[in-house]
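Pasting two entries for a bug report.
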Amino acid sequence: MVFFLFISGCSVPRIIVYEDPLSAEEHNDLGVAYEKKGKLQLAEKEYKKAADKKPDWDVPYFNLGNVYFKKGDYSLAEKYYKKALEKNPENTDAMNNLAYLYFIKGRLSEAYRLIKKAISINHKTEYIQTMKEIEEKIYSSQ
């Protein structure tokens, strides 16, 4: 009888479900590592996990915007840059990248307005470069 109980106890499968041990920040960091290696699909998955775990955090949305920009999906890139700005209206990196996206799409007045706002908050060299490119395009098209 003991033998039967032992054998039947060993043959019953047990399903164990673990919670995701990674924090939103760790998923985001993993996404950054994947993105740096050019593994955009894996980066996208990690950024989405980070956003799911911490929906009010702007960083994974900004990073998703970057992934979609690199993939050439400008409409999704725009969506996620805007979402990052909804979560944090002071995210100047999102402003810069969205302004550059608008520049590429020929939406120069929107690009210029946004990059001026970013520079008024944070005077980064990259933002100045984005503004110069936008201004050159505006002046050359007049």
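Entry 2 (this is the one that rendered wrong in the viewer):
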Amino acid sequence: MSAPIPVPEPSPDDDYDGAAFQPIYTAQVTVSGGASAHGRATGRARSRDGALDLELRAPRELGGDAAGPNPEQLFATAAAACLHGTLALLARRHALDPVPITVDASVAVGRDPADGGYLLQTELLVKWPGADSATAARLLAKAAELCPYVKMLCHGAPATIRLAP
């Protein structure tokens, strides 16, 4: 491994210490077209900046053809990537090699026994071969405190849903 990259200790207080949420980046994606089965969108997802442009398809288990990614796969990707990035940042900060770190994400959609609707359950499994287990566990706990996706999964996240005029 080359010399560790100097990275400041990530902290919620580093960039902002005010009382209100201050966005740093906002992703904007539009999903349109396609059919729907079991409440599952098919069609096209496009980001405003053009970096994302793909066809969404329902999985076979929900009556689809599985010919493209589905929302659960995209969510699993986002959650795993965010936790991976946060843990890699902490690893570098502690002069540890982040290259062997992997994060497996499983996102299951199923029926919600509370209301009969639908619910997601997520599992993130971190593998860090060669790392001291106590150190890895300590850094993973810190990463879970800092990662916005893990925070959202564990504590919920504010959401606004409205109809355009």
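Dev reply: Rendering is fixed now. As a check, the viewer should reflect this: The radius of gyration is 19 Å.
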